[in-house]
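Obj: model holo form, ligand = xanthosine-5'-monophosphate.
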Amino acid sequence: MEANNEKVIILDFGSQYAQLIARRIRENNVYCEIVSHKIAAQEIQKINPKGIILSGGPASVYVKNAPRCDERIATLGIPILGICYGMQLGCQMLGATVRPTPAREYGRTACTVNSESKLFKSLAKDDTVWMSHGDQVVELPAEFKSLAFTRNCPFAAVMHKEKIFYGVQFHPEVTHTPQGSQMIRNFLYEICGCTGDWKMHSYREKSIDDIRKQVGNERVVCGLSGGVDSAVTAALIHKAIGNHLSCIFVDNGLLRNYEADEVITTFKDTFTVDLHAIDARDRFLDKLKGVTDPEKKRKIIGHEFIEIFKEEAKKISQAKFLAQGTLYPDVIESIPAHGGPTVTIKSHHNVGGLPAELGFELVEPLRFLFKDEVRKMGEELGLPEELVWRHPFPGPGLAIRIIGEVTKPRLEILRNADRIVIEEIRTAGLYRSIAQCFAVLLPLSTVGVMGDERSYENVIAIRAVETTDFMTADWCRIPHEVLEITSNRIINEVKGVNRVVYDISTKPPSTIEWE
Ligand code: XMP
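Output (holo structure tokens):
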């Protein structure tokens, strides 16, 4: 079965928003991929996309060595939408002049539509757009038509009268351009003639097909971490090749409450996967004895995981492939926006950091999906809702949320406090709107009174953040009542804790984790 026949490609000129454009397109059920701006017109012809987007970028089109694209793309008859730098480049290629703007425009700007076009079909004439440019088109040949303007930008949007080329100086992909989403939809449906055949169900079928083709009759080994990506990878591969998949799950004793059990139940009992679950809790604790430095903890845990994985993988005879839950953002990062001569996409070997010496070939069935799409895929595959929507969890686990030495009793305290935090956040209906939330056990004791007695016990910090990229984050304004009940429950139910604090730091300058 051939899924997603329709494809749009984004030529990346180094825009910070290229991924965002891709997501906006996929949200409209049209599959799209980001490629290097150096792709040859011939290669585009082979891909046969329904549309081409020229992304923004930090350069100026009139400087030497500015990134350009194969000019023959304008002769392919494929609709093109240029955004910001992409607009300037496209217009310049078609005879317009681009110069520095006398008054630069950054941020929200009022924009007026002055002619009819398919791009602005059904849109209000006056609205706000998000600008971020120091250059702009200043002279437009007669073959062009101006579509919209702002106070300082006479050609905020244009179209070519013969070729199917549209350009917008602003950024329709960001939410600060309220009608941007509809503009992208218009480009896809009104201009490119897409029908929207990118659906997770058909993509699942295609992925299963691809895995079968790649793997044949060979055996695949997959490491399960308890997180979404590895779980979806395993479930998908299992659907494709059944008992030719062997999974390895290393219980390092640093997971949250019930997580290890849940992985084992889901994969061994529900999916009947050949699961090698290794109880390595003591082994990890032993290695972490006396260690307080966060980076040392990370190294020890990473190293130990690889050792155990290697030992176990050797026992699985004749395995040829290793499955990894690499996602599209990792893949995109390795696309040479300005450098590489080709559009080859390198593989990232960052998941679990398993060394090449293991000699496996890689299977990466999620390498074209964004995180939210992976979750949809997980739902399609029938994975439990709790697992599919789980917040990200760091590889070193609770070890980096226990500030100071990791011991069994301290793990117990943190695990119990963390369970209560998650329970209360779920009860309040906030779990899905928060990107990540958890408890941290601090390395200090404070004074309290419990009954008539003075106590001298541990402090738990609660961290809850909002973020989409995890590079920057804001603390969540959790209602006080929810914090109150969470704090009460932790102090009453978790032995050894007499104080709870809430972390109100943003990233930067703080990080999301405390270590
Ligand atoms: P920070 O603390 O750097 O966290 O703001 C950003 C995101 O990365 C996760 N994180 C890790 N994930 N191994 C991982 O697999 C690690 O050592 C690690 N440290 C932080 C963190 O949970 C957050 O989602």
